[in-house]
Amino acid sequence: MSQTVTADEVREVLRTHLAEVLYCEPEEIGDDTAFQDLGLDSVLGAEVTAVINSRYGLEEKVEALYQNPTLAELAEHVARHVGLPQGAR
Amino acid sequence: MNAEPHAPEPIAVVGLSCRTAGADDAESLWRLLRAERRLIGPVPEQRVPSVDTGPVDAGPMRAALLDDVSGFDAAFFGVSRRMAAWMDPHQRLLLELTWHALENAAIAPDRLRGEPVAVFAAAPMADYRERMIRADVVDSAAFPGTLITFTANRISYQFDWTGPSYAIDSACSSGLSVLAPAVQGLRAGEFSLAAVMAANITCNGFYTSSAYQAGALSPTGDSVPFSTRRDGYVRGEGGACLLLKRLADARRDGDPVHAVIRGVGVGHNGRAGGLTGSDAPAQTQLFLRTARAAGVPLSSVGYVEAHGTGTGGDLAEATAVTEALRTALEEPQAQVAGPEGKLWIGSVKSNIGHLEAAAGLLGIVKAVLILRHGLIPSIAGLDRPDPALSFGDLPVALADRPVSWPRGAEVRRIGVNSFGVGGALAHAIVEDAPEETTGAPTWTGTGPLAVPLSAMNRAALSALATDLLRTVRGSRPPDLAALAWTTQTGRARLRERRVLVAADLTGLAEALAAVAADRPHGQVAATDRRDALGRLPTPLAHTAGDWLDGLPADWAKHWPDPRSHCPDLPGYPFQRGPHWFDAHGPAARAGTH
After folding, report:
1. Which of A82, B106, B130, B205 has CB 3.0 to 4.6 Å from B51, enough for a Cys bridge?
2. Is the pLDDT of residue B440 over 50?
3. Assembly ipTM
4. Superfamily of domain A7-83 in the CATH hierarchy
């Protein structure tokens, strides 16, 4: 894959996904709100991870959400890894 | 008669909370018991759908239901709306009850993070999951949401407790069975604090239908235990949570002690009584065994809060109590210990229904209330006792009227009894808390006191101040020093914070009224408005400022020992919204509902 995306684009896509997963409005998900405060637990986190992997062709584990525990950080992380060859991730 | 020297460690009830039809806490439960209110009413079809009584000729279902089982303050507990919607309402109720029990014990939850606190929860019915199955919907959130283990494990996760955590099922004796591992583990030193809890919520017709068809439920919905109107049991909703510690620890730590659990015994009928029946001799043996293991004479029990469900089991239970007393009175110097020289029997079931898995814990709460208020409430609706009941020549009596039982020289003891449909028995002996030796509150400082209040948002803060104001202006106002100590050291520090500065209860009431109305006041400090702190002694003002700023705040250094807790403050006013999976099923998504 050679596509690249900006963190801003990823952030808005993820905001929509997160809102669907959590049954809330996208506006309720602040860029810097801790996922834990949103109630993103290990079960729903796995769902978010699956969405990210399928949409961006990644192989992230749910731990990526713990290591990047806000929307802003997660979007940066995803944008950085999209399009990189497997070994470089 | 006091305990024998070999008696095992008594266990203190340091915190309690409950909810039933008509009552949000223990004192409101007491008021309805005193008023002999009966909370049993009609059941709306959508609340318990598809009840099928089969060949049983039953009227429309009646039960003692909670007003709202879909309401939950998901944001307070950091639970997503998704998870809240698919989470069994038993878990949600127990989260709230655990929080309120901690407040009642004046334990700030943060203090217990990572501690080996034990959680033993009665395994509830699976109505919510059955309702999903009926609707043919499933969701990943229902994985933790409906597994029975999360009844206990969700609590351990929420509060970050690392002690044992599991659900216990012995059907309608579960609410006392949960006490057994708690008491044993505390005595063995495996943990120092245990949370035991049980809840019962009815939201699907399957179990109700099977119980009607098996003849367990009252076809009239008007059953009164031990009476001629006894025709089966009436379902009731609610729950309770107790926090337990070794008595010596509780006294060392200055905890409130509501009552003491002397012993818990569990057993089974064996083959006797049949698959689903109850057996008198097996219960008699259990009562005697429980008292012996507790190191107290059974004759010292003056009241039995019976399982008393209004079924055929009532007769066996009354016989069991009578025969146990007969054996107990064979001991030298044994005397009947209850008021008026009798052993009294009562049951809460005609007030609030039968809480099934939670029934035993509500029995303990009622026992605590009887000891606190010095009165045995009457069995509501008991106009004609069943003539089949016979106590022989023994001084055993049904509580057919309120019976005064004040605290006296002898320790008052209550037996709380329960049995499950599968033959599993459980019995507990509860007694008076030791006389208070810590004395009156000991605030020796001069000048006004600081009363910190916090909530998750302004609406909840306003509601909290409103509730506290009602208590402060009520007929039994709290001691200001005890209230200040409790709010300083026995509450979580939440997002929206105020410090109320008050020299007396009148000043506190004015400040509370201002917080309730969400308006500024000269005696109220907020993070951005600190003038009021200037009225406090400087060291106390510093601590109050640190608390407002979210910094570590050592309130205790301002207090000499011993301190006094104020356990009867209102619990946190959860801001509940509706959470129910039906709103998110395929029908809802397709917009066809």
Report:
1. B205
2. no
3. 0.91
4. ACP-like (1.10.1200.10)
